[in-house]
Amino acid sequence: MSQDDDSGKKRPNPWGDASGNKGEHKLTEIPGGKKSRKRSGGGRGNEPQDIGELLKDLQDTIAEILPGNMKGGFAGLLIVGAVLSLWLASGLYIINPGEHGVIQRFGAWSRTKDAEGLGYHWPSPIEKVTKVNVNQQRSMTIGYTENRPYNYRQGSSIKQAVHNESLMLTSDRNIVDLQMALQWDIKSAEQFLFEIRDQENTIKKVAESAIREVAGQTDMFQIITTGRAQIETKVKNIIQTNLDEYNSGVNIKQVLIQKAEVHPDVQQAFQDVQSARQDAEDTENIARAHREKILPEARGRAIKLLQEAEAYKQSKEAQATGDASRFSSIYNAYLKGKDVTKERIYIETMEEVLGNAEKIIMDGNGSGVVPYLPLDELKSKTRR
Q1: What are the extents of the domains in the chain?
Q2: Distance (Å, whole) CA 103 – CA 132
């Protein structure tokens, strides 16, 4: 395709004809009598122009739009220098307190500026900087969402439960409604930007997994009563460990349980279980108290019986030893004087036999009963 100039001659199209002929430099005439150097085609397969030609084309283009008195080459160079200076100056940036600047060169990470103040990077499209606030305390909710009212100064935020996040199964096969809040910040800006995608959603999924893991290993009663602090610590450690394995550059500051309740659908069954457990504990306490009362008494009786048996044993041993000694002494005396010993034994035996018997004394001559005064019996009655 060609165009007609003022002289009536055909002027070739600088961008190539319909047949696809490209790659030749064309001189086209523009209003004012100047000629501009253009390059036909522009396809990716053509060799690029050198820097001198590019600067010449830029100078010619600027000269075309300048007034007549500024079309000199020196003025054009000044304008080119000014444009180049503005382009170079666009690489200046400022890092505010608490921010890190992550610099990418042609899309790849180059360096990170962690000191506040003025910095410089090669202007776009060579390099670009992404500022990340690493000191900002960020928060996340698990199991509920917070919505501020339109006029938030007149009321607190409105919580709305998210049951697919909050309902969890415990180790004793109960269902707990558990809501938690997570606070975190960024400890490595380059890892946070490049190591994980969809950062907040990834952190939330890791947190949900950690909470369900800990809840599945804990009884319902501990979750809703005295075990909250331990659960928070375990969840925080698991989340931090997993995020460190991902090289996420995230630091978990705190995990707080906002709500831990029994699900309404199993509330009645849980109360029944707790009542039965309380009854069992009461019965166990009563049995323990009874045991503590009975055991000391039984131990005391056992000790008493042992002591009585020991005393009886010792008395019998002493008595047997004494009887044996007495028999030995009597036997020795018998061997020395048999008649005297026999008489003495007879007398002692009669005293022992007749000592407690009722006695009637008869006269040997047949005159009847001999009266006597029983002084020993009177003494015993007087003592009584």
Answers
A1: 2-89, 92-133, 139-148+158-262, 338-383
A2: 11
